[in-house]
Every structure is written in structure tokens, then in C-alpha cells.
């Protein structure tokens, strides 16, 4: 075992600084490499490259082994490289996007996906994943909704904890990855939903809503934290000592590594807090940032700053030690290749067990938003189906952050239906364009070239439309596979209009007008405004970007082989102008309901309801549950507990899984509290016709909240309790929290 202090003592200053610099693949290999950020010439010498401590987004056992071999050959002290990668929701076996995973309401399912993602990526030579993303998001305009598990702090906290546990589960046996929780912090709340924009959050909200998932990650042993691009209190997080030192190190006792997001150190210059690269370097380093990702600031700046006494050698050593410690923990000093081989990678990736998990997970994450006239499910053997739409036969259903996904391995909806439906019963056509113009999407990275995508010509468009109308008229059921282009959600994909494109809406209306029954199946990465299509179709299935087995999971659901259980973890707005709309808002002094004021002077819109079209927690199943008989212990005393029980009855002939949700409202507190806050949920299986009493226990832990100084407050008084199947349809009770 390498003695790290002894190793550190032998290191030159350049060697130390190198450990704090991260570069991407093009510095190590001649062929074109994956880049998932802006391209810039860095102005870094070959000598710096030879000392670098970590590599960004190079994967594959053969490649990582080769880079490691070359590096060690030239490394005086034989300090291995760390390979870090964006393994966000799968490496080769691509799971549903995180927003879809959020709809499972099943942290253990997410844990399993992370275990598998880590196994596959570790077999391909990765050591660290830039995941989980713990950003709370309330604004569907922000493209990175797709990477979040949603708008609720309680759910997100559980998911983040499960993800860290999953990624790191097999760290010791070389089959796990170190997790890097991101983006610390507030990144999910950019003003106007515009990516990379300013964030204005109160400290109270930071403590109550935005910090807890990060703290949970750290408590779960997360090895790294990535800083976000945005400012907090006007100070970019990457150079914010209050966040990186006072909070992370002093208060939360985080021992691991901090890393800047891509180019964020140099971005301190356009932020307007640093005059040049050297000042950016000093600000970030002295704020507590360990690794500079993809800028020359640390590489060129740390040495002169040290000489000028503007940074301390002790701090430098401490940061370097943290990097070395992770290398040691990963076993890299013993085996810099961490047991990888191209054969091992091939054996591990796409393992049938992994694909099974992907199908099951997608099945649990799909949310049925509407189902009328008994449209779904239907027997595929005896139904004449018209499958129409730009996603009818399109494998591009991974979403943006599946950077190592191979869409050639993805089953399309058409192919999945062909496995279940007799040939004569299925007719398929594209029907209409996904987008009329693709140029505005730009380029994201090597795996995301969209150069082959083009809009239909006018003649093709009319032919497709006619064919689709013919197929629709003759079918018993039409499946319309529509949605966003995968490049419309994700990083740098903010949008102001959340409707489906107008030509898709018009097409849906035309088809629905001639079809006997229409099911709208949506592939997208964020909540959409569906107000203009909701009434013209019989059923809506929100598939999200469901991953490699997503199409088969969809067929499982629409054919009745699986009873859907997904519940929204983010509200679907009624209109663009409502955004951000989220369930756990404050009541205001002039609430739209339960106010004495005359209607004009309430907190509401003149032209749109306050409520979203589909609320947080909502989703339909093939069975039907009703809740009744809410019972609540009337009093909670310190150290005690309140029992809340409700009877759940399945009045249908189908067995199913139901998610019972418990919300609280603190009626009078020293700080205004949300009208509703999710505090517990449970998933139960209900046999056909069965009833079950479901109980929850509430303790003082569920009642506290943070003030703006980060102190936790626990206050006596009345609490309202709500139990329901979603956040808008609730049974209500109450209890008092009192001294005795
Ligand atoms: C920028 C993104 O914000 C971050 O999420 C990602 O991990 C890094 N680039 C590295 O690719």
C-alpha cells in the first residue's frame, strides 16, 4: 500500500499541480474524442499534460488502458490517472432519463440501475461518474429537467442517496464507480429557466429545498462534489468560500474532492469576478476548489501564485492528498488498470440481466396521464393497430446524456410491437416530421451528430399525411408516437415554448378526428404543455426518453402485460406562462382558495388556472384505487409519534401497485411554510377487489424546517395532514404538536 504522505513528499510542484488538472481525451489520443462542452484551445504545454491527474470522458477498456500505459511510462512517480465520465443513467445499457426514474417513486430501483451503470462503466475503465445530479427543478423551461428527479426535496433526497449507494456499492471489488454529486448548488433554478443564468435563491430556500440532497449524498459517502456554473449571492459557486468551505467542509465535514464544472474556473472572468486566468485560479483555489476541469487556469496559475504567496502550500498539499486518496481507494496504485480488459467489458455491457432491469425500470417510470373510453390496455393479438409518428420507428430514445449509448442497439417501438402483434395487424408510418427545422439544435458532442436528420420534402410530407390518415381510418386503435427531439432537452436546451410543435399538434388533431381511438405516446425530456392536445385523444402515455428497452416496456404497458405505476415527480404546466409551477409553493397572503378577499385581488391569473394540467404525484394505472377513512392521532408530543391511517380499496378486476402519498402543512410557523410538503409515501400491491389499511408514522423529524441562517426550527402548533394518490386529490386531517 502506497504511503500517500511519503509519495507527496517526493512530488515536485509541477507534479502536485498536475493532480489538480483535468483534461479531456484529445490531449491523450490523436483520433477525435468525445467532447460535451464548448471547444477551446487551452494553451497548455505537453509537460502539463504529462503531469495531469485525471481524464474527462474517455471510455472503453482498450482506450483507457492505452492512455494509462503511456502515462505511467512517462510518469516519474508512477501515479496513475483517474478516468472520470458522464455515466448519468447508464453506460451502454441505457436506463430511462432521471426525470423518468423520478416517476418510479422507488429509490431501490434507481439504486439497482446505478449498480449496473457502474459495473459496465468500470469494466470500460471509468473510475468516477459525474452523477447523481441532485438539482431540484421547478422550471420546465430549463432543459436539464431531464437530468433531475424532479421538483420535490424529499423524493430527490432519497433518490440521490440511493444513487450514491448504487454507484459506489462495488467500489472495493473494482466494479463500482466513485460518485460525484452535482451541481452544487442552485443550478436548477436559473432565472427564466435559461441554462447557465443567474440564480436568485433565498438562504432559507437553499437550506430547506436545495441543500438536503447534497447533504444526503455526502452522508452516503459520496467521494466528490462538482460545483455549479451559477452564482449564489452574486458569487459564482466555483469561487464561493461560504459554500465550498464553511458549508461543505466545516459544517458537513466533507472529506472528498471538489471539482469545477466544465471550464467554470475560467468562466469567473466573464462572470466579472476575476480579471484574468490567474485571478480566476486564485479565487477558485482559495475558495476551496480542488480540481479545475478543462481550463488552463490551475495548470498555468498555481505555480506563480504560490511563489507570490497568494495561495498556501498547505492547502495545495491537502487538495493533492485528496486526489491521491481517491486513487488509493480505487486500488489504482496496486492495479492502475483496475482489472479491465476489452473482453471483460464486452462480457459485462449489455448483459441480459442489465437489459431486463432496463425494461423493468422503464415499465415503472412510464406515466399514463389519460385513459378514457377503455382505450388502454388492448389485446395486441386481435387489434388492428396503426403506429404513426416520428417516434414510430426511431431508435433515438435515449435522451441527451446517454453519451455512451449506442442507438443501433436500441429497439424501436415498431420493432417491439412486431414482437407482440401478428404481422397483418400492424401498419406503421412516420406520418409527420419531428421538427420542421433541425439546424437550431446545433452540435453537442461526438456521439450526438444530427447531420443525417432532415425534414421531409413538401411532397413526402403530404404523402405521409395521407398514408397516416388512411391507416388511422382503417385501424381499431392509433398509436401516435410524438414528442421532443432528444436535443431539445438536456444541457443548453432551454425553451420558452413547452407545447409540442404546432405542426405536430395539427397532425395529432387531424389523425384523432378520423381514428376510432387514439393513444398519444410521448417521448420527451421535460414536462410539456399538453393543453392543446389533451382533449382530442383518448389516452396519453408519457414515455419520457425511456432508454434501450423503453419500447418493449411501452408494449408491456399498452398490451396489459404490465400495469403502469409511474407517478409524476414534476408538475405538467397548464400554460407556458405559469412556469415555474410546482406543488409545494407557499400559500401567499392572498391564496386563490380559502381567502376572504374579493376574487379580483387573489393570487391568480386572469387567463389561466393556478393548477397545473397534471399535478405532482399523478399517474393512472389499469386498476382503480380509492382512499377512504383517514384517521389521525390528534396529538404529537416530543419524542412521540402520530399515526395516520387510510383505507385503500381496489375496486377493479385488476391487481396493481399504488403509491399512497402523505403531505403535511404547518399551519402557523415563524416562517411561511409550503401549503403542502411530501413527507412520506408507500407503495402497496393491491389484489383485484382488495382493501388494505395503510399506516404512516409521523415524528418530530418530519416537522422541522430551516431558517435563513441554517438553524433547524421545530415549532409547536397545528399541522394539517393530507393523504392521496396525487398532490391535488387529497383526504385531510390534522393533529397538534404540543409540549404535553
Ligand atoms: C458540463 C455539465 O454541466 C456537467 O454536468 C458534466 O458532468 C460536465 N460538463 C462534464 O462533461
TrEMBL record:
Its EC number is 3.2.1.21. It holds the Pfam family Glyco_hydro_3_C. It catalyses: Hydrolysis of terminal, non-reducing beta-D-glucosyl residues with release of beta-D-glucose. It comes from the Bacteria. InterPro entries: Cellulose_Degrad_GH3 (IPR051915), Fn3-like (IPR026891), GH (IPR017853), Glyco_hydro_3_C (IPR002772), Glyco_hydro_3_C_sf (IPR036881), Glyco_hydro_3_N (IPR001764), Glyco_hydro_3_N_sf (IPR036962), Ig-like_fold (IPR013783). Coiled coil: none annotated. Keywords: Glycosidase, Hydrolase, Signal. GO terms for molecular function: beta-glucosidase activity. Residues 658-727 form the Fibronectin type III-like domain. GO terms for biological process: glucan catabolic process. Belongs to the glycosyl hydrolase 3 family. NCBIfam families: PRK15098.1 (NF011678). This is beta-glucosidase. The lineage of its organism: Bacteria, Pseudomonadati, Pseudomonadota, Gammaproteobacteria, Enterobacterales.
